[in-house]
Amino acid sequence: MDNFFSIRTVTWEGDAVRMIDQTALPAKLTYVRYTRPEQVADAIRTMVVRGAPAIGVAAAMGLALAAVRSKATRTADFMRDMEASASLLRGTRPTAVNLFWGIDRVLSRAASASTVREAKDAVSTEVKAMEDEDVEVNKKLGKEGADLIGNGDTVLTQCNAGALATVGYGTALGVVRAAVEQGKLVKVLVPETRPALQGARLTAFELVRDRIACTLISDTAVGHMMSQGRVDCVIVGADRITRDGYVFNKIGTYQEAVLAKRHGIPFYPAAPRSTFDLGRTHDGVTIEERGAEEVVEVRGRRVAPRGIPVANPAFDVTPPELVTAIITDRGLVKPPFSESIPRLIA
Ligand code: MRU
Known about the structure:
The protein is of the alpha/beta class. It is built from 11 helices and 16 strands. The strands form 5 sheets. A 5-stranded parallel β-sheet has the order 6-5-4-7-10, sandwiched between helices. Strands 11-8-9-14 form a 4-stranded mixed β-sheet, with helices on one face. The chain is globular, with a radius of gyration of 20 Å.
């Protein structure tokens, strides 16, 4: 179905990166255009672009801007310019491994060239390929997971793991889209996802636009909906899956997984290969702590008393025993994950 959210979240224009400004959604669908790596770093930090695969590609393109703009004539100087921008981009958000994957991929492409001219061309070609690949991989992943959704099922998700969190099509919502493309009736239960409201603003925007049946709920309604038999399966995205099968995703995912276990509901993270971190186990991952204003305010309006201490972890960790299977572009990864992840993904 070509009418599914087919616009691209992030695109490479050769000397600029164009992206949807996700902070303006759902009120306005507007684009921003950046020509400097510092602007892209800011956009990632402030969540103009967000979602693990989208920030991976955006960071890669931010680095490609450094390549395009470099005045170096010797490859050693050129690589120094690249390293400086890579370090800036690496410092934007710590949890999604795709960010580091995107940066490393561009750096190694640049390093394999023998002249500066060649490196600039290679990097530009590489980021355009990454953009296209992301959509292809998500469509593949969607097909791999679609059979897990039955006709008439209600799928609970978390955050936004849709087209807006990727270059296009989405991971968790890609599975939903693929099931709908198979002709199934699918309904999505969308938790609002406090504090940044990616569910209420972004997932709801995509699903309403695509005319996929959906219902918005408060985050606090998840357990009740499950206890009433109103959830058939949970499908979420992931920011990082370590080699021991721990799933890092938007805050609130862990409680969905615990509740799903309690109610005998299958729990599936959906993620491309770039989200797997084979070099790390769960204890080596930094969970991003974001600003207090996100919690004490609701869309710019203060709701909590001044002086209240705030904790604002942006992600949580779901242990492997709560995960039924992981949907990837290479098929389903099943427990025991410490054996199946390295085998399928390596
Ligand atoms: O803070 P965000 O909006 O970048 O967090 C996004 C998520 O947690 C998504 O679920 C995850 O990146 C998977 S996106 C396909």
